[in-house]
Amino acid sequence: MIGRIAGQIVYRGEDHVLIDVRGVGYVVYCTDRVLASLGRPGEFAALYTDLLVREDLLQLFGFPTLVEKEWFRLLMSVQGVGAKASLAILGALGADGVSRALALGDWNAVKAAKGIGPKTAQRVVNELKDKAPMVMAMGVGASPPPPLSDAPDEVVETAARPPAAPPAPVASAQAEALSALGNLGYGPGEAAGAVAQAAGEDGSLDTAGLIRAALKLLAPKG
């Protein structure tokens, strides 16, 4: 299975990008967020990918981090949520937003995605809320890959040899805070909820700040 591609951008469409890898063009479908983050035609790009295989269709979907790719795969596992709906949710919320919404049980945030009704949003939250701590923790210890400009002829990589994820600083801080709270004896669900709430109230918090804020939220009331 194709797990990552890296090459030169040929063009960007409304919902996809064409990336040339040593003379082979790969059409990769992405969210609006991802497309906006990519460079112009002629520049290089690297995306983690998930290959959707059907009887009459092969489609590649691209993501900037392994966390976002994992959420795509999990969202696709929910009954009634296909690739289009999964991309809509990720496009509306981003990987961090999905983690936060599910950790807090906020199905209204999921419902804000285009084409997602209240019943589907509630189903997503109910089926995936327990997955939020695991996905949020994926950023711990990850290191960024070498700069693309140093390896313009990089070839397609497979899922059997996945590269390290390049997590966003905020995502990494949340993952580290989640790990620390787990070491303090808090359960994954309550820790994820507290970290998500703290990050939502102040997006500039680093790991230490998130831990302090989450501990205040977890402290017994009264």
TrEMBL record:
GO terms for cellular component: cytoplasm; Holliday junction helicase complex; Holliday junction resolvase complex. GO terms for molecular function: ATP binding; four-way junction DNA binding; four-way junction helicase activity. InterPro entries: DNA_helicase_Holl-junc_RuvA_I, Hlx-hairpin-Hlx_DNA-bd_motif, NA-bd_OB-fold, RuvA, RuvA_2-like, RuvA_C, RuvA_C_sf. GO terms for biological process: DNA recombination; DNA repair. It is found in: Cytoplasm. Coiled coil: none annotated. Keywords: ATP-binding, Cytoplasm, DNA damage, DNA recombination, DNA repair, DNA-binding, Helicase, Hydrolase, Nucleotide-binding. Pfam families: HHH_5 (PF14520), RuvA_C (PF07499), RuvA_N (PF01330). Residues 1-64 are annotated as: Domain I. Residues 73-92, 108-127 form the Helix-hairpin-helix DNA-binding motif class domain. Gene3D superfamilies: 5' to 3' exonuclease, C-terminal subdomain, DNA helicase RuvA subunit, C-terminal domain, Nucleic acid-binding proteins. It comes from the Bacteria. SMART domains: HhH1 (SM00278). Homotetramer. Forms an RuvA(8)-RuvB(12)-Holliday junction (HJ) complex. HJ DNA is sandwiched between 2 RuvA tetramers; dsDNA enters through RuvA and exits via RuvB. An RuvB hexamer assembles on each DNA strand where it exits the tetramer. Each RuvB hexamer is contacted by two RuvA subunits (via domain III) on 2 adjacent RuvB subunits; this complex drives branch migration. In the full resolvosome a probable DNA-RuvA(4)-RuvB(12)-RuvC(2) complex forms which resolves the HJ. The RuvA-RuvB-RuvC complex processes Holliday junction (HJ) DNA during genetic recombination and DNA repair, while the RuvA-RuvB complex plays an important role in the rescue of blocked DNA replication forks via replication fork reversal (RFR). RuvA specifically binds to HJ cruciform DNA, conferring on it an open structure. The RuvB hexamer acts as an ATP-dependent pump, pulling dsDNA into and through the RuvAB complex. HJ branch migration allows RuvC to scan DNA until it finds its consensus sequence, where it cleaves and resolves the cruciform DNA. Belongs to the RuvA family. Has three domains with a flexible linker between the domains II and III and assumes an 'L' shape. Domain III is highly mobile and contacts RuvB. This is Holliday junction branch migration complex subunit RuvA. It comes from Sagittula stellata (strain ATCC 700073 / DSM 11524 / E-37). The gene is ruvA.
